[in-house]
Each structure stands twice: as structure tokens, then as C-alpha cells.
Specification:
Layout lengths: L2 E2 H8 L3 H10 L10 E2 L1 H13 L5 E5 L5 E5 L9 H18 L4 H28 L8 H12 L23 E4 L2 E3 H8 L3 H10 L9 E3 H11 L2 E4 L5 H8 L7 E2 L3 E6 L5 H9 L16 E7 L2 E7 L4 H8 L7 E7 L6 H13 L2 E7 L8 H9 L13 E4 L8 H15 L2 E2 L6 E10 L3 E10 L2 E2 L3 E4 L2 E4 L2 E3 L5 E2 L1 E2 L4 E5 L10 E5 L2 H28 L12 E9 L2 H12 L6 E10 L4 H10 L2 E5 L5 H9 L4 E4 L2 H15 L3 E18 L3 E11 L1 E2 L3 E6 L2 E13 L2 E2 L2 E2 L4 E6 L10 E10 L4
Parallel strand pairs: 5-8, 10-12, 10-13, 13-14, 14-15, 27-28, 27-29, 29-30
Antiparallel strand pairs: 1-2, 3-4, 6-7, 9-16, 11-12, 17-18, 17-26, 18-25, 19-24, 20-21, 20-26, 22-23, 22-25, 31-32, 31-39, 32-38, 33-37, 34-35, 34-39, 35-36, 35-38
Helix pairs in contact: 1-2, 3-6, 7-8, 18-19
Length: 754
């Protein structure tokens, strides 16, 4: 904004003429009140006023200790110009030094400078009241005040000099972010409005209000987006505290190896274990296929070994994901007459990801079509090169049914265990992992524990996940009750108050108070994780569906027996989408329907389709308790028809209107009971009393409502047919006129189909 001589004079509280006179003496060309004043003009004027000094001067000291000089005719003015000049010079020097120091120190000096200025202003005010005749002469002080008043709107006349000014630039701060944090609390930590945090969350694709809780990773992204430095902090972790409580004083001793048997369905995993255990476990399995994880301790000529039999690999993955190192060696069973199958590949990937040793058992070598070299070649293509081919993977041809080669396989496993030098602490509180669990209607919660360190005893107080309890009974794999279990032992225990999850860690604790604290802590963390997961899932495709609110989405989880079928079904389902509804493939894969599939279906409100596969026992429990829609199929087109029907069920029904009859108004009568009554003649269709009506005038709808009465002569009727006269009263409508038409119609809903 331009400043004129008149404006500046008004600020200085002196006549325009006096200001023009001083400006001209300073060498400026201003001659009228309307002339504009630039910042450089102000600087030239101030420089001139500072330079106009007299030879007579003396120094005094003010109350604040600032040296003040009076000059010439203004010698009796104690609020001296020299004091101001000295102050300015002092500030310049101080500022030059302080700019090299930290921001905090600059702010402290700013406060001191403000106090000094206030003290000077107070003195000037006192002197001005004492000597009002000098008011107009003291132009220098007034000019300084004016410069301060305009410094926010104008260029500072001290741009080339150092001044004390409050910092206006953005100050980057370190923001410590916990594992979870409320959006409002995060905004306070950064000193910004909550709406700004919500806006940044939206830009990241996260829908949250100011009262919602977000995870640490998301919070750090928001902090850095705003410009601060996000620091992840770890909150007090009871899990770590608990682990630190268990300290073993004994030296680690040799322990038995834990072996997980993996492979494709019907390649002989359980049959192999059956031969080793000299039992007939496989005969009791539905269809000869293992329906649950089994853990067995086996005494062999090579020592005691613990075997874990897996029907699929979801539990193995879950254990690995939770950080439980449950197995030392994986025995990969491959049928010599069938070769590598989808679950074989999956088993290889899981074993490699868990970084465990692999021993391959090439089974069914006694059957027609067995080709050991082909199997070895296929495995070599998967980076599992046999020892006799120059690799490091031991491969043993066996017949699990007859027992051929099983002893050699056990020798190879024992050799591998010896190379690994497996050790564990035997004395002290036990800790380990849950292999499987179930709720038995007679025995209650039953869990299979794999002891990894210490000794588990009857009567020990155990915490596993959210479950706690005293060990009432320990049962080994032979079904015998024992009093204690050493490292690598797989045992069933009774006494927990809840059913723990497969893969949960268990630990023996000192007292019940400690156990409950850990259980409550884990329960709280689990709830937080579920809330965050549900929020992510519900808002994951928010931006994808913007502008498509009317489009219905059917979430689908697909599990098939082979990869080719899975690919074909996925492609066919994606082609079913229309402008009204679509299929969203949440997850697809090969293998049985697992616990993770069921949990995912709950999280995203999905149906599960199984093609030549079935749900395992754990998944079935979740599916039943959560009422998840599950259907099994063996023919693709039947599966597609099922999905079409479900998509159609999502669509809103189509509402269609059908005109039932039309009556023309001949005359209008007033009835004390019904108000206006239209005397009508039915010209089309039939008039029904319980149907909605419209009033048309000049073929334009002017009212829609319902009939209050329908009479034929003096009788109330429910229907009047075409060609007959009747009296019609319309509820809450009193503007009926002769010549109007009353249209009776009906609404019908029709289900939409894909």
C-alpha cells in the first residue's frame, strides 16, 4: 500500500508542512501532501535527522543505565537521540553475534530488547508530559515509532542492518510417535490443527477422524508430510519384560531335533510317520488325508525325534510370521510317480523362508510310473540340488507303505541334526510354542505344546496368548500321563482357561497377577490390531470407488485344487462385472480353506468359494461362528451361476409402476363427512380403493396421494370397474375440479439379475 506525505505526517503527529520542510532539507524532492513516500525516502530522512548534531553535548545516565546525550537547544530533553542511536548500534552488534548462535538464544535476547524498548517508551512518555512544548521538536523519536508501526506492512528501513525479530520461518521438530496414537493428540504434538492431519491422512488414502487411532507407520508418514521429523518410539513391552524374566543358569545341553513333514496331499506324509511310529494313524483320517496338525515324539535307533505332521502349510506360515522357530529340519515328501505339485512348491518356499534344513524323501518308489531322476531334476530346478548331483540336499528314495529306505532316511535326519548341533536349556521355567489347540467338550481347552527351553511341570502357571492357567495334566504322544516335559517334547496339556492360537508362544510365570497382566496386555494389543485392520480394509479402496456409489461389490475368496483352475475361475469371475455390480477377488490361491482365509473373510465381509477343496477344522469353526457364506463346487459353470445369483441378491429391486385405472371428474360435491367428493366416471381399467392415486390437470400431475373414500351410489366399495360412475374422496386434497383426471396406479418390485 502506497504511503503519502499526509499519511506519514499524521503518523508522526506533525503538520504536513513541517514534514515537507524536513524532507526537503534531507535532499528529497517532496513538495505536496499527496506525494508518495518510499522506504528509501524514509531511510534518507532518518539518516539526515541522525546527522544533524550540534557541537555542544553532554552525557547523562538514565534510570535503566543507558547512556543518553543531549545536544544544543534540546539539551534539556533527557529522552535523548544519542541514547536511541547508541541502542541501535548496540543492537546491531549484538544481533550480528547472536545470529551465529542457536534459535532459542535469539528468542531470549528478543525478550530483553522488547523490555528495553518498553522502558524507553515509558521514559519518553513521562518526559513528553513534563515538557509538552518540545513535542513537535522531537521528530526523531516519533519517526522511530512510525517505522516500528509500519514494519509489518512496509519494507523494514533497516533491511541492511541486523535487528532482533521473532522467527517467522517453519521450525522443524522431532516428533516421537508411539505404536498407536490418536489423530487429535498427533496434531497437538505438531502444534497444527486436527483438520490438517486429517487432510494429510486423506491424501495418503487413510480415512480417519480426529478421534480415531492410527498406527505408528501411518503417523510417521503424516508427520514427515507436514515437514517434521518422525521418530518411532517403542512403548513398554511386557513381552520383552517377560522374556527377560526367564534366565537360565545352566549350560545348554543337546536336545532332540524337531522335524516338520511337509508335501503335497496324498504324497505319503502321514503314512511315513505311521511307519516310523508303528501305528495306523492314516486309517483314522477322513479320506486318508490329515485334517489337523499332529506332533509326535518318536524313539528311534538314532535317538529321540519330534515329528510334526502338517495337512497344509497355513499353520507353519503363521508360526513363522509370529517369530516362533518351531522346526529344525523339514522332511519334504515327494511322490516319485507324481512329481512336484502346487503344495510341494509351497512347502519348499515356506522351508526356505524359515531358513531351515531340508531333507527330501522321494516316496512311492515301488509304484509303476515312479521316476526318481525326474523328481531330482524338478527339485534341482527349484534350487534343491541332490548331493549325488553335486549339491547339498540329501534325497532318500523310500516306500513309506513298505518301509523301504526309512532307516536310511532317519540316519540322514540324525546326521543333519548332528551338523546343526541343536542345544537348549534343560533347567528352569519352560517356554515354547503352541502346535495346535482345540476345545474338547469333555476335557475343555486342550493345547499341544512344543517345549523349546526349560522343563514343563504339572502345576506350572502358564501364559499362552490370551490364555492362562495351571497345568493340570501333561500327556505325551503315546497317550500316557507324565509329570514333566523336557526341551523338544511335544505334549498335550490341560488347564488353560481359553483356547490359544496355533503359533502362540507359551511361558511359565511366577504368579497369577503377572499372568493376568500379560494376558490383558496381549488382549488390548490384539483389539488395537483388529481395529486398525478393519479400518484399513474398509477404507482401502475408497478412492477407487469414488463416483461409483451405486455400484455393488461382491468380495470373493477363492481356493482351488490346482493353479490352472484358480486362474481360469479368477478370469471368469472378473468378466461377470457389470455397470451395476462387480466381483472383487480379495484373495485366491491353491490349497484347502485355512484359518487365515476365514479371518480375512470376516475382515472384508467376503464369501468363500472352494473348488475341489475343503475348509480345515479351524477354519470351519470360524466360518460357523461368524456365519461366513461358503460354498463348495466341482464344476466351473455351477460356481459362476452361484456367484451371479449372489451378485443379483446385492442389487436393489427395480420398482415399476403400473396404471390400474383412470377416472374423469364430472362434478365436485361437498360432503360433511369426507369433505370434497369428486363425482367420476371410470374411463380406463378399474379403480381400487387401497392403491395410490394421482390427480392430473391438463395431463400434468398436480397431486399424489391416496383415496379417502370410494363409493358407488351410497355404498362404500373397494373397486369400481370401467364404464361405471363413482364418488371418490382424496385424502388431504381440496382443489379437485371438474375435468381433472384421477389416475390409480400400483408399484411392483422386481428383483434384478446379472
Amino acid at each position: 500500500m502506497a504511503i503519502t506525505v499526509k499519511d506519514f505526517a499524521k503518523t508522526l503527529k506533525i503538520p504536513d508542512k513541517a514534514l515537507i520542510e524536513r524532507m526537503q532539507k534531507a535532499g528529497l524532492s517532496h513538495s505536496k501532501s499527496s506525494d508518495e513516500i518510499t522506504p528509501s525516502d524514509k531511510q534518507a530522512l532518518l539518516k539526515f535527522l541522525k546527522g544533524s548534531k550540534t557541537t555542544s553535548s553532554k552525557s547523562v545516565t538514565s534510570e535503566s543505565g543507558v547512556k543518553v546525550t543531549s545536544r544544543g537547544k534540546a539539551s534539556n530533553i533527557q529522552s535523548s537521540n544519542k541514547s536511541y542511536s547508541d541502542n541501535i548500534e548496540a543492537k546491531r552488534a549484538a544481533a550480528s553475534e547472536q545470529l551465529k548462535e542457536q534459535q532459542i538464544k535469539r528468542q531470549e535476547q528478543l525478550k530483553e530488547a522488547v523490555k528495553e524498548k518498553q522502558s524507553q517508551r515509558k521514559k519518553k512518555t513521562i518526559k513528553t508530559k513534563q515538557e509538552p512544548q518540545q513535542k513537535k521538536v522531537d521528530v526523531k523519536d516519533q519517526l522511530s515509532s512510525a517505522v516500528n508501526a509500519f514494519k509489518k506492512k512496509e519494507e523494514n528501513i533497516f533491511d541492511d542492518q541486523h535487528q532482533f525479530e521473532a522467527p517467522t520461518e517453519f521450525i522443524k521438530k522431532d516428533i516421537e510417535v508411539p505404536e498407536t496414537i490418536n489423530v487429535g493428540e498427533l496434531a497437538k504434538m505438531m502444534a497444527v490443527k486436527g483438520g490438517e492431519v486429517v487432510k494429510n491422512l486423506m491424501s495418503l488414502g487413510v480415512v480417519a477422524t480426529i478421534n480415531d487411532v492410527i498406527d505408528q507407520e501411518t503417523a510417521i508418514l503424516v508427520v514427515e508430510e507436514i515437514g517434521h521429523n518422525g521418530i518411532a518410539i517403542e512403548q513398554e513391552n511386557l513381552e520383552e519384560d517377560l522374556a527377560n524374566l526367564i534366565k537360565y543358569k545352566d549350560e545348554p545341553k543337546t536336545r532332540p531335533a524337531v522335524i516338520t513333514v511337509m508335501g503335497h496331499v496324498d504324497h505319503g506324509k502321514t503314512t511315513l510317520l505311521d511307519f516310523i511310529r508303528k501305528t495306523k494313524v492314516v486309517d483314522g483320517e477322513a479320506g486318508g488325508i490329515t485334517q489337523h496338525i499332529g506332533a509326535y515324539e518318536v524313539e528311534t535307533s538314532k535317538g529321540r525325534l519330534t515329528f510334526i505332521d502338517t495337512p497344509g502349510h497355513a499353520a507353519f506360515s503363521s508360526m513363522r510370521a509370529r517369530g516362533a522357530n518351531t522346526t529344525d529340519i523339514v522332511v519334504l515328501v515327494v511322490a516319485a510317480n507324481d512329481g512336484i505339485k502346487p503344495q510341494t512348491e509351497e512347502a519348499i518356499n515356506h522351508a526356505k523362508a524359515a531358513d531351515v534344513s531340508i531333507v527330501v524323501a522321494i516316496n512311492k518308489v515301488d509304484l509303476d510310473g515312479a521316476d526318481i531322476d525326474k523328481v531330482k531334476g524338478d527339485l534341482a530346478a527349484k534350487d534343491l540340488t541332490p548331493e549325488d548331483w553335486g549339491g547339498n540336499i540329501q534325497m532318500v528314495p523310500i516306500s513309506a507303505l513298505k518301509g523301504d529306505g526309512v532307516d536310511e532316511l532317519l540316519e540322514r535326519i540324525a546326521l543333519e541334526a548332528e551338523i546343526l548341533e541343536l542345544k537348549a536349556h534343560h533347567d528352569g521355567a519352560a517356554q515354547g510354542v503352541v502346535i495346535e489347540s482345540e476345545l474338547d467338550k469333555f476335557r475343555g481347552s486342550v493345547a499341544t505344546f512344543l517345549v523349546q527351553n526349560g522343563t514343563l511341570n504339572v502345576g506350572d502357571l502358564v501364559v499362552s496368548g490370551n490364555a492362562i492357567g495351571k497345568v493340570k495334566s501333561i500327556i505325551n504322544s503315546d497317550g500316557n500321563k507324565i509329570k514333566s516335559a523336557l526341551p523338544s517334547a511335544a505334549v498335550e496339556i490341560l488347564g488353560l482357561n481359553l483356547v490359544p492360537n496355533a503359533g502362540d508362544q507359551f511361558m511359565v510365570v511366577k504368579n497369577e497377577k503377572q499372568a493376568r497382566e500379560i494376558s490383558e496386555y496381549r488382549l488390548t494389543k490384539e483389539k488395537e490390531r483388529k481395529l486398525l485392520k478393519q479400518k484399513d480394509e474398509s477404507a482401502g479402496d475408497l478412492f477407487e470407488t469414488l463416483g461409483q456409489e451405486a455400484k455393488k461389490v461382491l468380495n470373493v475368496i477363492i481356493k482351488t485344487d490346482v493353479g490352472g483352475t484358480c486362474e481360469a475361475i479368477t478370469a471368469a469371475l472378473n468378466d461377470l462385472g457389470t455397470d451395476k455390480a462387480k466381483v472383487k477377488i480379495v484373495s485366491s490361491g491353491v490349497g484347502g480353506i485355512s484359518e487365515s482365509d476365514a479371518n480375512l473373510a470376516v475382515a472384508v465381509d467376503s464369501i468363500i468359494l472352494g473348488f475341489n477343496v475343503r475348509a480345515d477344522s479351524t477354519a470351519k469353526k470360524i466360518i460357523e461362528s461368524e456365519s461366513i457364506k461358503l460354498s463348495y463346487h466341482s464344476i466351473i459353470y455351477e460356481l459362476l451361476d452361484d456367484v451371479k445369483a449372489r451378485m443379483s441378491g446385492l442389487l436393489d429391486p427395480i420398482v415399476r409402476e403400473e396404471i390400474v385405472g383412470t377416472a374423469e371428474v364430472l362434478e365436485v360435491f361437498n360432503s360433511p363427512k369426507f369433505g370434497q367428493v369428486a363425482g367420476c366416471n371410470v374411463v380406463e381399467g378399474n379403480v381400487l380403493r387401497n392403491k395410490p392415486v394421482r390427480v392430473l390437470r391438463d395431463e400434468i400431475v398436480i397431486f399424489e396421494g391416496e383415496l379417502n373414500s370410494l363409493r358407488r351410489f351410497k355404498e362404500d366399495v373397494n373397486e369400481v370397474k370401467n364404464g361405471n360412475e363413482c364418488g371418490m374422496g382424496i385424502k388431504n386434497y381440496k382443489d379437485i375440479k371438474p375435468g381433472d383426471k384421477i389416475e390409480v396406479f400400483d408399484r411392483k418390485e422386481e428383483a434384478q439379475e446379472i
